[in-house]
Amino acid sequence: MKFIYFSFSIIFDLTLSSTTTLSDLNVDTQIFAQPVIEENWEELLVAGPVVVNYISNLILANKRDFPLTSFNSNHIYEHIRDPYSFQYTLVQIANQIYTVFSNAHSTMDQTQSSTKQIPQHLKTIRKLLKSASPSIIQVMLPNTLDTIERTTKNVANSANIMIKKYESLTALLQEVIEAMTNTHEVNNSVLMNMNILVNATKEVSKIQQQWSQITRNMNILTIRVETIRETVLYELMDTIKNVTSMNSEFGAADRRFFVSKMLDTLIEVEQDAHLLYIMAKTYYDVSSAYIVSQIADISKLLILITDDERQAAMTQLGQNLLSTLAEISQMVLERKQECQQRNQEIQEEYTQFVQQMMFEELAAGIGK
Description:
single chain, mainly alpha, elongated
């Protein structure tokens, strides 16, 4: 039977790419550069469909069952439920992939919904600073910042939970590879299966990297909000308190002063939020079109009996993956352009906002 599947490379190497975690976040000047989509973003996005392709082909290629027995009869498997059957283990892998990818799908949907709300909160901040009364600013501005910070922390927490789920999947795949390495019967078929599983494990690691990027970017957003709180908010609250105690006016010049102090960080927060929204939306769109239904169909491959049926399914999988990769590549190009355009629009919107405040300040001065 001819085995058809897509592979970036078949390398028998158990070393996986490292991922970024919360502890890796270093706060320095490089972190706060203008947000851009990572160069390897497309590679990370296609990893999901590639994993599904690998496992589907692995199921189709294995009609004969064999045990994953260890030379050490006392060996205890931590993740494999039935080491006496490779086919049952493949079903276990497929089920865990289905569970993890389905959870990732719903979590990323929540992520895009959450990040989409952040620009609205920033719009509220601008309105407050421009025209709200001091008493309203005192109440609503801290609350709005708290809402943004709570959103970023919740999303980061959800991303960390997903990272743990992918780590569990990786641990299962690695244990299966190790078990196959130690099996009493090692032949070309077993070696081919091992190579496929190694490459599938690497692709899972790439997906994990994407979630780590989201965690890292969310922590950057949290730091930016905390920066506003620590460097501007307290001074603003003190100014309002002093103005109120002296029955004075919190005038246009005061408002523009504090907008100017927050301006760069507000722009960065909105650009970061849009970047995260684009990342989450694109992952969700890829998952909707090329992962969720394909995972659900894996179980249908188990009932294919004849070589012709299996070969036809393999051929179709290969053709589908090639078209999927091309479509994802086009999607990535469009989303990158959208992100760049929106970054520029955000800059222009805030510039116009400040100019409008300056105009109103001048107009108010002329009228006095």
